[in-house]
């Protein structure tokens, strides 16, 4: 991370324990025990929703959705009846953090896995959460679940993820929350340099690693899909729009049209969150009406590069009615 004055520094998560299948953690893998609290707006949370759906963990891990708006008290369940999560019974996610630690004063973030019986957050370790869904929750995967973290490609997947975490996933935030021109310029340059290198990598291959979707694709995609709706304007990442980067635009459309990706994406909630919560950047709170997102459904031509989206697995089934997002069609 840069030491340039005015640079955005992401705080470490405060409860990064892991839920493990071998019993070595105080939080064991157990179907029905945990509720995944996510938010449609947040890219870090979105990737957990995607992986949960691709692996078929819906029956093992329930899903609670915090709304796009929050205040100093944390993410809140303002889309649910009575403004409370129907399973946890809480109004603010911070209540589950304080149930685990009454003195908790770090960031209250999504995604978080909450132990339903106690109401305590078990983990908000977003960096390990989806990897653990792939490697620790295998007993609860659906038939035909893809291998998103294949052992033979893990070193390369880890390397690729590391190459764009700070410059792209976190880089858009480094642009948006920079408080000096130099810090912004540094983040901006690193962001677009990395996007250019990713365009080169994806020009002749359909996916980032191997011939099927992996964890690396999920992590890159959640930033790309938000680019024009939020980061280009709101975070000043404005050298180009995603729609003006041909390879990355086609790659993003390909995945958007793949079950698990577009059917978990809510553009309205994304815009409501970024423009409605970041008052230092957008004091008016006015949410833009654009951009036109219908282009995500246009032909992408990426199938000509080969590859099998789910490898030896199969696509997930239809989204559960209670988890559906507004369709572009």
UniProtKB/TrEMBL annotation:
Among SUPFAM superfamilies, the record links this protein to: GST C-terminal domain-like
Q: Where is this site: Lowers pKa of active site Cys?
A: 231, 274
Binding residue positions for glutathione: 75
Q: Which InterPro entries match?
A: Glutathione-S-Trfase_C-like, Glutathione-S-Trfase_C_sf, Glutathione_S-Trfase, GST_Omega-like_C, GST_Omega/GSH
Q: Per the record, which residues fall in region Disordered?
A: 304-329
Q: What GO CC terms are in its UniProt record?
A: cytoplasm
Q: Indicate the residues that form the catalytic site.
A: 42, 173
Question: The GST C-terminal domain covers which part of the protein?
Answer: 150-274
Name of the protein: Glutathione S-transferase C-terminal domain-containing protein
Q: Which organism is it from?
A: Pseudonocardia petroleophila
């Amino acid at each position: 991370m840069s030491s340039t004055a005015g640079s955005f520094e992401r705080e470490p998560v405060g409860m990064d324990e892991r839920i493990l299948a071998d019993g070595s953690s105080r939080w064991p893998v157990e179907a029905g025990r945990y509720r995944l609290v996510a938010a449609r707006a947040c890219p870090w949370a979105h990737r957990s929703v995607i992986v949960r759906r691709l692996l078929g963990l819906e029956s093992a891990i329930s899903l609670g959705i915090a709304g796009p708006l929050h205040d100093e008290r944390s993410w809140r369940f303002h889309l649910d009846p009575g403004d409370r999560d129907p399973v946890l019974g809480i109004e603010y996610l911070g209540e589950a953090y304080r149930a685990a630690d009454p003195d908790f004063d770090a960031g209250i973030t999504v995604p978080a896995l909450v132990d339903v019986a106690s109401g305590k957050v078990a983990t908000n370790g977003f960096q390990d959460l989806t990897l653990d869904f792939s490697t620790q929750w295998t007993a609860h995967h659906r038939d035909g679940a893809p291998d998103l973290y294949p052992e033979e490609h893990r070193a390369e997947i880890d390397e690729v993820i590391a190459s764009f975490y700070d410059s792209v996933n976190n880089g858009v935030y480094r642009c948006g929350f920079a408080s000096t021109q130099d810090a912004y310029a540094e983040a901006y340059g690193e962001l677009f340099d990395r996007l250019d290198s990713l365009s080169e990598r994806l020009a002749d291959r359909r996916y980032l690693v191997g011939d099927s979707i992996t964890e690396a694709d999920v992590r890159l995609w959640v930033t790309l899909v938000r680019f024009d709706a939020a980061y280009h304007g709101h975070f000043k990442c404005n050298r180009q729009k995603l729609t003006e980067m041909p390879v990355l635009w086609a790659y993003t459309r390909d995945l958007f049209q793949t079950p698990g990706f577009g059917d978990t994406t809510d553009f309205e909630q994304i815009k409501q969150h970024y423009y409605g919560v970041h008052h230092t950047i957008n004091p008016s709170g006015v949410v833009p009406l654009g951009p036109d997102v219908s282009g995500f459904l246009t032909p992408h031509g990426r199938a000509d590069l080969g590859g099998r989206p789910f490898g030896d697995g199969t696509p997930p089934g239809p989204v559960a009615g209670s988890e559906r997002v507004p369709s572009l069609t």
